[in-house]
Amino acid sequence: MAKSVGLSAPTVTNLTGELIDHGFLRGLVSKSGSMGRPRVPLAVDPDRRAVLGIHLGPQVTGLTIMGLDGTEKVSELVPHGDLPGPEAIAKVVTAAERLTADREPGELLGTGIATGGQVDVGEGVVLDHPSAGWRDLDAISPFRAALSGPIVFDHNVRAAAQWELLYGVGRVTDDFLLLVVASDVGCISVRQGAIRHGASRRAGIISHLTVPGSTVVCECGRTGCFAAAASDDALVRQAHTAGLTDISYLDLLVRLADTGDATASALLSERNRAISCTAAALFDLDDPGRLVIAGSPAEVADHFEEIRTGVGRESVLGEAASERVVVSNGHLMSLTHYAASSMVAKVLEDPLAHVSGDARLGA
């Protein structure tokens, strides 16, 4: 470690000792058989420090307390249905207070909050979230009033990219493209370990990219927009138009297709084609080391494989492109973990500042 960071061994020992004392690292059993003072392996301490992650969803919000190593300690889902934005936020704040009430003093270092739509990161405002019906919603002030510690606010997709950097594909490459398809859609480029935010911090908006051959009419009035063709909510609307009026969320459509229903299968197959076409175009533009697929298409192995194969078919690189398409390690609470990882990244910038009282509040 001393060699890799360019510091002397005593300096590294002192620094890591302080991080161990403050609960960020822990020493492991040394396996060294060499003479002299043994080298002690280190790992992130999974127990003594944690962050709160909140994913503000259009119908359901997820909360989790996550260790700095990415492991979940406890989680909760908070349905808020069609409540107006401020009332939905108030309900989530109450749940967050309840979830954090019995944590050890000093354990929680802050909160990461993420959501979809268009967000103003600096002001902590959801500018427009069509799936939730939120416009100009103050998403941060109620949490600042109720929770202690700093708060980081960002878009789902950038938070997902941060999670991948810390705990996912970032462990094998620092050059990747992340495509998220859920109730919202987005794409983020990561180069040399840096997330591309864009000049206005709104990079990743791909909702209105045109899908070749798609006939779905978007709410913007155009035909073939990616979000209208591929997002989870769009698929539910398409199912209703096709006569499957009992479908209230995407999993029901997937289950119906598994029974052999031709209409459900056709809708999902067309969605996978739309994702493949868009993913291939983004891949050809960026030429990443990996293309990571996250969200609902990554949760069904057959769907992911159909998309991966489709990228190879549509990309100018052919099969070589499909070999670089990988699935995110996400799961049911993945969006909440993504939100939490944004706060972990803030902690890692200066860990000791978050225990000495000089951590700066704000995004």
UniProtKB/TrEMBL annotation:
Coiled coil: none annotated. GO terms for molecular function: kinase activity. PANTHER family: BIFUNCTIONAL UDP-N-ACETYLGLUCOSAMINE 2-EPIMERASE_N-ACETYLMANNOSAMINE KINASE, ROK (REPRESSOR, ORF, KINASE) FAMILY. Belongs to the ROK (NagC/XylR) family. The lineage of its organism: Bacteria, Bacillati, Actinomycetota, Actinomycetes, Micrococcales. The keyword Kinase applies. Keywords: Kinase, Transferase. This is Sugar kinase of the NBD/HSP70 family, may contain an N-terminal HTH domain.
